[in-house]
Write a structure and sequence with these properties.
By secondary structure, this protein is mainly beta. The chain is globular and about 50 Å long. It has four helices and 19 strands. The relative contact order is 0.22. It has a domain at 2-12 and 44-171: Thrombin, subunit H (Beta Barrel), CATH 2.40.10.10.
Length: 289
């Protein structure tokens, strides 16, 4: 009981929401004009609860939750009708290992109660529901390491998949330590549980001991997303915390996306990628695209 109480205190003081900074730069990965970004997106996974995913007649079936109903959004909010069942994001760092946020996979039940899915994405702007192959569904076999510290604001995890990934490559991880203030960034992930999005036009705003702050367009369920240097295409960090996602509209009972000035609000917090480097098996090939 004491352990549970400590966890409740910990999570009650951590904000996992996100915000939009300036223009909303989120686009479906299939609509990106940058082939490098589309290739990077192939190495990003959605964490989806077992109860929201099944395989029937060799076809993957996701639950019918859509964003509008899930978040009580107003009619004109973007991506309203898209399916939204992801709860976190992760990315491939070796043929068998995925990195995500520590608050996404902190216990054995977090490992066993969820699947990890590649290609949780829509193929064009007219589609609202995801179609993917059963071969792209993986299970968490083991938690290699996880850390979640409210005081130190450390938040990341490395998990081992149930089998090797052979049809896509791990992302390249930055080994320079910390990015520089002003570095250009992009983020790949599943904002509010949506199919895979890429959002560009962000920068590093400040550096702290265990994380940096950036004006990334991100939401809950972007937790665990790779934050990538837009010049080098290397992963600089793991999206873990941010501002509030939605607020009540002035008229009606629906919600709207929270929008901040480009350099306003608190910013989004990103764990440094260097923290996970010691936990990727050294006998595996060096990640590369």
């Amino acid at each position: 009981m004491k352990y549970i109480a400590l966890l409740l205190i910990l999570f009650s003081t951590v904000t996992f929401g996100r915000s939009i900074y300036g223009e909303d730069n989120r686009i479906d990965i299939a609509l990106s004009n940058n082939p490098i970004h589309r290739e990077l997106g192939r190495s990003v996974l959605a964490m989806i609860p077992n109860e929201d995913i099944s395989v029937q007649d060799n076809k993957v079936v996701f639950s019918s939750k859509i964003l509008k109903n899930k978040k009580s959004l107003c009619d004109k909010e973007r991506f309203n009708q898209q399916q939204a069942v992801a709860t976190c994001t992760g990315f491939l760092v070796s043929p068998r290992h995925v990195v995500t946020a520590g608050h996404c996979v902190y216990s054995f039940s977090d490992c066993s109660d969820n699947k990890w899915v590649f290609d949780y994405a829509v193929t064009d702007s007219h589609k609202t529901h995801v179609e993917t192959s059963p071969s792209q569904i993986y299970s968490c076999k083991n938690i290699v390491h996880t850390t979640l510290s409210n005081r130190g604001k450390e938040d990341w995890a490395v998990i081992e998949l149930d089998r090797e990934v052979k049809d896509r490559k791990p992302l390249i991880l930055s080994e320079r330590g910390k990015p520089m203030i002003g570095d250009p960034l992009l983020i790949l992930g599943h904002p509010s549980g949506l199919p895979l999005k890429v959002a560009e036009d962000a920068t590093v705003r400040s550096l702290d001991k265990n994380h940096f702050v950036a004006n990334l367009d991100s939401f809950q369920a972007n937790s665990g997303s790779p934050v990538i240097n837009a010049k080098t295409n290397e992963v600089e960090g793991i999206l873990v915390r941010g501002g509030v996602d939605y607020k009540p509209a002035l008229i009606g009972q629906c919600q709207k996306v929270v929008k901040c000035p480009k350099n306003g609000c608190t910013g989004e917090e990103v764990s440094y990628i260097e923290r996970i480097l010691p936990y990727i098996p050294v006998n595996l090939p060096k990640p590369g695209v």
